[in-house]
Amino acid sequence: MKFIVVEGLDGSGKTTQVARLKERFIQQNIPCFFTCQPSNGELGKMARAVTQGKFKIENEALSLLFAAEHYQHFKEAIEPALENGKHVICDRYYYSNVAYQGVDKATIERIVSYIKAVRDARPPDIVVYLDVEPEECIKRISANRKEVSIYESLPLLKQQRERYFTIFDRLKATDNVVILDINNANEKTVSNKIWETLERIL
Fold first, then answer.
1. In CATH, what number is assigned to the domain containing residue 92?
2. Is the pTM of this model over 0.90?
């Protein structure tokens, strides 16, 4: 069974594409389990509350909280699904932890150490990164949402995109990352690109 992660900036269409992917798995009767991070577990709820600006904690503390959430979620949900013969598709994983909390090189290296336990347990079989320019992401966010997270501004999205590429390069020896340039592509085209990518490993 394969462990698949879909990553991308806020506004990249990531969650929409995960939903379309779910439909395709179901239509083809492929056993699957869909999940997301932050999860709906207690640690995930706490992390989500911080990202929604409901209360504040130090960036380092948030990095540790997300690392704990990744491991707990893996043990409680992802690993059992894989062992029960289901492919797992996760909307975000520890790469987002680096992109959103990795404020500098030293912090990125600490986060990599924090997520070592879950990476040692099992890294994803494939990571599909939906690459959309931050300017386009902001346009989509502004048009489609009434509430935004503390990370949804153009300067922050630009930084996050750079950090994504930093962590992908940092982990390229062990993690299978496929970057899809989906600028100017419609939803159906993106969905087909993702499926063509996944068909190689399923």
1. 3.40.50.300
2. yes
